[in-house]
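TA notes, week 10

Several of you asked for a full example with nothing omitted. So below is the full record: structure tokens for the whole chain, then the designed sequence directly under it. When grading your own attempts, check the secondary structure regions first.
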């Protein structure tokens, strides 16, 4: 018995397979035949792919080391902006090649500085650029930093700068759950957490580094007395070098044991993110919770 397949065209994976008057006699392994055709189609499709599309770009280098993160600095706003665009990263790193700030730039007055921060794994390289420099390369870098600051979301300066591997522990206390959450919690809790596990420290650190702030930043050079506003929480980060970051809410106020200033981020976006911070601590295994039944 003979089955005759008339001339026809089959489209598979963008490749045209032409079968012309193929005689298939009794006993011919049909499944193997069509499997062979499918395999040919896949091979031809693969060959047609552009090789460049399969290439993966290597991480850009700074001082001969792969860059893991790159930020521009807006010091007056106390924010870092993470530069994520490939072309922007290449522009900035090229501009930073062989740059040596003039000796006159080594000043403690950073009030109007812009700049950059480069991470290469656990190493980091901060660069501060004065606004009134007469040095041509410094002026170009200042303008480039200003451009990047306007192009990317703003992150909290001290959180970005901190090194998670140097954190010994994190303490958190306050309210969470219903009324203080971005999730669907039906109960309110008082929570108390002392985080020492490396996985949890990294989870909190990643969250803090990713927090986005908007609006104006207020900097105070004397201790504030905010009282106890509704929704108060506190966060303390303890580092191996004995430095301690202290934060409290309901929005975000941050100070450091080695600094004489207190920075206040008060926009609505900060409130939303501190609620998400409470959600994160509520889910960590080290957190102790107490249900607020009389609320």
């Amino acid at each position: 018995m003979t089955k005759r397949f008339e001339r026809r065209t089959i489209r598979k994976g963008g490749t045209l397979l032409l079968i012309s008057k193929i005689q298939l006699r009794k006993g011919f392994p049909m499944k193997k035949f069509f499997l062979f055709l499918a395999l040919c189609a896949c091979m031809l499709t693969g060959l047609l792919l552009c090789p460049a599309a399969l290439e993966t770009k290597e991480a850009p280098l700074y001082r001969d080391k792969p860059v893991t993160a790159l930020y521009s600095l807006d010091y007056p706003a106390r924010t870092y902006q993470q530069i994520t665009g490939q072309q922007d990263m290449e522009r900035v790193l090229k501009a930073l090649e062989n740059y040596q700030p003039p000796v006159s730039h080594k000043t403690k007055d950073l009030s109007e500085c812009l700049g950059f921060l480069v991470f290469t794994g656990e190493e980091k390289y901060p660069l501060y650029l004065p606004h009134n420099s007469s040095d041509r390369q410094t002026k170009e870098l200042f303008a480039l930093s200003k451009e990047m600051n306007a192009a990317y979301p703003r992150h909290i300066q001290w959180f970005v700068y901190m090194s998670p591997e140097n954190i010994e522990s994190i303490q958190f206390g306050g309210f969470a759950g219903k009324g203080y959450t971005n999730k669907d919690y039906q109960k309110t809790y008082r929570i108390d957490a002392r985080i020492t596990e490396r996985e949890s420290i990294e989870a909190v650190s990643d969250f803090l580094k990713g927090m986005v702030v908007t609006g104006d930043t207020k900097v105070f050079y004397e201790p504030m007395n905010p009282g106890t506003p509704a929704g108060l929480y506190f966060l303390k980060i303890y580092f191996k070098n004995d430095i301690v970051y202290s934060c409290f809410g309901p929005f975000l106020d941050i100070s450091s044991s080695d600094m004489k200033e207190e920075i206040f981020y008060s926009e609505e976006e900060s409130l939303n993110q501190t609620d998400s911070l409470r959600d994160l601590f509520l889910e960590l295994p080290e957190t102790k919770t107490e249900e607020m039944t009389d609320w």
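The mean pLDDT is 81. Use that as a sanity check on your answer.
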